[in-house]
């Protein structure tokens, strides 16, 4: 592996103009394809195999044409204090507003609340009008949206309060933000401080930008959504900078030892590039493994992000060596750029290594590994405590800030019609083949009305064939409450009794039902998913490290990282700690997909730092150093770079905290905190402590297993021996020539 990458690095260096031109052509082709691609479809939340999805599929089949993909708005009217919305002046104002909205070109229908049953609250103070559109929310024109927004001012002029809920005024997801630019700026500063060279700092940024441009353009070209694109951007940018950072750092080290620019590029790609390839492969495994969950939108996000990571790896192994060919000396420290060569003494010290912060920290940990291990585990355990209080759900208007019109409309409807009005349950009665479908629907309505927690049941609405009925059930409690979830389970539990009485089947769906089904589906998929990604990653790390205990320790360590990350999410988004600081105006449940998505991404990134740090430790060990000394040597070479890489990744992820979409904000905070815990607590504290306690046992591999596993030479030991042998052969051939 190292030998192949050594040759690839030298080839890219030698043919740098060709390699750079090829990447420019690839970028141009991807940009052209993205520009010509049609608008991406919305991410429909489909849950194959669940009762909610079966009910939706049945509705599409039995009620053809009834479902609409168009946007919807619910205009909520509230009368002034002490007045009724049904008063003549208020009623006239409401009817005028509804008429003006109904005149829009994109409006499909606008229903007057005074001609709709139960559209006015019992006390007569609140009413609502439902507006449906021919187009989806992103396709609504500015004129259509302005007409809808103007109703708020029209209502104010008439003395009534108007607020608007629904999907019509949903903001379009952002692809980036000002805080992401700040994240890039922080990354640039860290790179300059780490390398002391603008060229050395600029190359990782340049390759990362090219990588995300190619990756994001490819994602757009194949028609994926903006949310998927944002996640690809986030991960591609973070790993792209980190992977280039490690290779540039190794190149500078090789040049400091006196190797030529071309040979240094080959050695850097052969050693650090091997670590990049295997570290990236663990990230790809974790992301692509999301497809085993069986939720299409999660599969798309995982595959898109995995593809972007793959592009970052290929760029680091090809374009970066080519760019180093253009900036052979510009990336070096100032002393070397001025032509000051290291003396033999300096080179010896460079190889032996002067003490630095990394060596001092590693020495501290290896002197008292048990105490450090216990303290770190205890600290991460405390940080993980909030995880046990995690509540999952899909955020709706109730999670919007109280300053938004959507949230005020939600609250007004809850006040006027009860908290369950915002989340009615849809009950589908499948009476196909039943002797008396109407009797079956009436029996279902009677049973549902008697169920505790139900406010009302609408009259049955049959399809044209008369074999399927639709009932709307309004709960007494809010959509996200535990009581509503229990009610759904109760109704589903009554389905067998109805089938026994009438022969009809009963299915329940709604937003709340979808949340329940999603949580259960994700819970059921969690163990198989972990088995797949952990099993493959452990096997991969056994190949990399030629060890059994090191991969197992790596896999277990990530549990602490993900526990701390979930603790941070719960503390901020549920409990409201520091919520104002990051712009969380309303606390609520954690998005249902977050646990399994965060686990997958964090596992991949955790293995990144494991590979980057431990390969240097193993490199020292296989070259003859004792276990504890190898830890110190590994930290001497890698601690500063790993620290810089972690700070950069934290800055990039933290940049997404400033975005408006709740899901992206959660991902940004979760990943930023997970990287912090994993890099600084787990990998740079727990890992050396455990390795110090294990000693030589950490690097043992059963002989039978060693014969099965391929030897990929990630540390470049064989490569080094080959290059040294070639150097000695060249020297021996040159000696007779000088004698003659």
- Number of alpha- plus pi-helical segments: 24
Content-based structural category? alpha+beta
What is the helical fraction, as a range of percent?
A: 55-70%
Number of E-state strands: 11
Unreliable segments (pLDDT under 50, ≥5 consecutive)? Answer: 341-351
DSSP strand content? 5-15%
Distance between the termini: 41 Å
Q: Gyration radius, to the nearest Å?
A: 31 Å
Coarse morphology: elongated
The average pLDDT is 86
Task: Please outline the major beta sheet.
Answer: 5 strands, antiparallel
General description of the model:
The protein is elongated, with a radius of gyration of 31 Å. Strands 6, 7, 8, 9 and 10 form a five-stranded antiparallel β-sheet that branches. Mean pLDDT is 86; it is low at 341-351. By secondary structure, it is α+β, with helices and mostly antiparallel strands. It has helices at residues 2-14, 16-36, 51-62, 88-102, 142-158, 178-195, 198-221, 226-256, 261-288, 296-326, 334-337, 344-352, 357-367, 369-383, 405-417, 437-450, 482-502, 511-545, 549-574, 594-622, 627-655, 662-694, 703-708, 717-739, and strands spanning 72-78, 107-110, 126-133, 161-166, 392-393, 425-430, 454-457, 461-462, 468-475, 505-509, 590-591. It contains 24 helices and eleven strands. Helix 9 (261-288) packs antiparallel against helix 20 (594-622).
List keywords for this structure.
single chain; 740 residues; alpha+beta; five-stranded antiparallel beta sheet; four-stranded antiparallel beta sheet; 24 helices; 11 strands; 7% strand; elongated
């Amino acid at each position: 592996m190292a030998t192949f990458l050594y040759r690839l690095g030298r080839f890219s260096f030698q043919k740098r103009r060709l390699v750079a031109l090829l990447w420019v052509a690839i970028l141009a082709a991807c940009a052209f394809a993205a520009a010509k691609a049609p608008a991406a479809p919305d991410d429909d939340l489909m849950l194959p195999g669940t009762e909610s999805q079966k009910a939706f599929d049945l509705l599409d089949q039995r009620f053809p044409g009834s479902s609409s993909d168009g946007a919807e708005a619910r205009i909520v009217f509230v009368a002034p204090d002490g007045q009724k919305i049904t008063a003549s002046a208020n009623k006239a104002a409401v009817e005028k507003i509804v008429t003006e909205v109904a005149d829009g070109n994109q409006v499909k229908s606008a229903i007057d609340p005074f001609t709709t049953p139960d559209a006015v609250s019992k006390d007569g103070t609140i009413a609502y009008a439902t507006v449906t559109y021919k187009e989806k929310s992103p396709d609504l024109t500015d004129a259509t949206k302005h007409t809808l927004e103007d109703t708020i001012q029209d209502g104010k002029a008439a003395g009534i309060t108007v607020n608007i809920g629904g999907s019509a005024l949903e903001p379009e997801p952002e692809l980036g933000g000002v805080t992401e630019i700040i994240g890039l700026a922080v990354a640039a500063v860290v790179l300059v401080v780490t390398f002391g060279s603008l060229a050395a700092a600029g190359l990782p940024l340049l390759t990362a930008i090219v990588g995300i441009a190619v990756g994001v353009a490819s994602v757009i070209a194949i028609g994926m959504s903006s949310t998927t694109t944002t996640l690809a951007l986030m991960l591609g940018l973070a790993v792209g900078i980190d992977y280039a950072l490690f290779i540039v750092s190794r190149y500078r080290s090789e040049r400091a030892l006196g190797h030529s620019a071309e040979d240094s590029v080959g050695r850097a790609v052969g050693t650090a590039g091997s670590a990049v390839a295997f570290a990236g492969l663990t990230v790809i495994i974790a992301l692509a493994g999301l497809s085993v969950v069986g939720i299409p939108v999660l599969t798309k996000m995982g595959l898109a992000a995995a593809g972007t990571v793959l592009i970052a790896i290929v760029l680091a192994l090809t374009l970066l060596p080519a760019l180093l060919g253009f900036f052979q000396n510009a990336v070096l420290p100032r002393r070397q750029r001025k032509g000051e060569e290291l003396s033999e003494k300096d080179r010896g010290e460079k190889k032996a290594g002067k003490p630095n912060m990394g060596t001092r920290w590693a020495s501290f940990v290896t002197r008292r590994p048990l105490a450090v291990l216990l303290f770190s585990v205890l600290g991460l355990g405390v940080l993980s405590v909030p995880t046990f209080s995690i509540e999952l759900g899909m955020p709706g208007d109730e999670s919007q800030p109280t300053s938004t019109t959507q949230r005020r409309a939600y609250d007004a409807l809850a006040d006027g019609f009860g908290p369950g009005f915002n989340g009615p349950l849809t009950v589908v009665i499948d009476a196909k083949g039943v002797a008396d479908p109407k009797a079956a629907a009436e029996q279902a309505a009677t049973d549902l009305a008697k169920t505790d927690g139900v406010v009302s049941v609408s009259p049955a609405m049959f399809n044209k064939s008369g074999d399927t009925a639709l009932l709307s059930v309004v709960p007494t409690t809010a959509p996200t409450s535990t009581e509503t979830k229990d009610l759904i389970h109760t109704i589903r539990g009554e389905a067998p009794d109805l089938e026994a009485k009438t022969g009809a089947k009963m299915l329940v769906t709604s937003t709340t039902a979808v949340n329940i089904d999603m949580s259960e589906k994700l819970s059921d998929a969690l163990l198989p998913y972990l088995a797949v990604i952990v099993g493959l990653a452990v096997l991969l790390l056994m190949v990399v490290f030629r060890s059994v205990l090191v991969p197992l320790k790596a896999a277990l360590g990530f549990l602490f990282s993900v526990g701390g990350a979930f603790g941070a999410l719960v503390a901020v988004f549920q409990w409201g700690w520091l919520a104002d600081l990051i712009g969380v105006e309303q606390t609520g449940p954690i998005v249902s997909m977050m646990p399994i998505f965060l686990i997958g991404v964090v596992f991949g990134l955790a293995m990144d730092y494991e590979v980057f740090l431990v390969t240097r430790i193993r490199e020292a060990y296989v070259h003859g150093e004792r276990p504890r000394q190898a830890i110190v040597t590994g930290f001497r070479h890698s601690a500063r770079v790993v620290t810089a890489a972690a700070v950069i990744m934290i800055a990039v992820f933290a940049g997404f905290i400033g975005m408006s979409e709740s899901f992206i904000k959660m991902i940004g905070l979760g990943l930023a905190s997970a990287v912090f815990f994993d890099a600084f607590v787990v990998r740079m504290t727990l890992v050396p402590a455990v390795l110090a306690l294990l000693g030589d046992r950490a690097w043992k591999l059963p002989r039978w297993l060693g014969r099965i596993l391929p030897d990929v030479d990630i540390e470049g030991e064989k490569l080094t021996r080959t290059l040294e042998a070639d150097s000695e052969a060249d020297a021996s051939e040159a000696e007779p020539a000088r004698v003659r």
